[in-house]
Amino acid sequence: MRIKLKKKLKGAEGSFLLDIDIQAEENCFLSIFGRSGSGKTSILRMISGLMEPDEGLIEVKGTVWYDSKKGINLPPQKRKVGFVFQDYALFPNMTVEENIRFGMEKDDKELLEKLLELTELKNLRSRKPATLSGGQRQRVALARAVARRPDILLLDEPLSALDIDMRRKLQEELIRIHREFSLTTFMISHDFSEVFRLSDKVFVIDNGKVIKEGRPEKVFVQERISGKVKFSGELLRIKKEDVFYIVSILVGNNIIKVVADEEEIKGLNEGDRVVIASKAFNPFILSQDS
Fold first, then answer.
1. What is the pTM for the complete model shown?
2. Residue 222, Cβ neighbours under 10 Å: how many?
3. What is the maximal distance between C-alpha atoms in the chain?
């Protein structure tokens, strides 16, 4: 798969040129990570055909969807894409089952039942979106997108509006569906831990350019160590607060408290020397031996 795009865009700081060249293997879970206004959503919209690049190439599974040099530009309905929007975009007058069926190119009862089971929606199949929770609506949106049997599944901040417990649960469902249907998945997320847990490969975007790419552990560990703000200290206490952990660290004569999740504190103990590093996005806690 190759996604090569150029597009002049407007951001909060003025106009900039989106200029990317992404190549990846099929059936990978890919994430695009970066600040708001760096062009992430525009990339998904151009892949889906909802926005036209100024120039470039989109080739998926050996089929060219867009080629500015050859004048090829398949309309959205001819691109095998499943798109999950941040606001769900469900049809309010349709039931859960009807919303999912709407995504199908042809009626497939077996696929419908499989999706209802995978997303735990069987008992809600006759309900309408207004009667569902945010997590349930997001499951319907995901099932509808997969019902197209897409070549690419596009996820635009799919879990950002959900609480931590529901995010974790749906992260597990996302990766299960990704593997079950052998999808190539593109996800936009600002959540470092979400990108780290789900992705095979991550592309870090800044001002329209890919500034780093690779496996999350490689990209983010290097990013952490080279942070613009970095403190070394002694881990004093790890205290659980609801679904988070509050980590107290002695830095010089000051105690700094950092919110962390279970994955970030794994292997850390009171008395350890650790580093707090931050660059652009989130603070991180590292063992000083990392």
1. 0.75
2. 11
3. 66
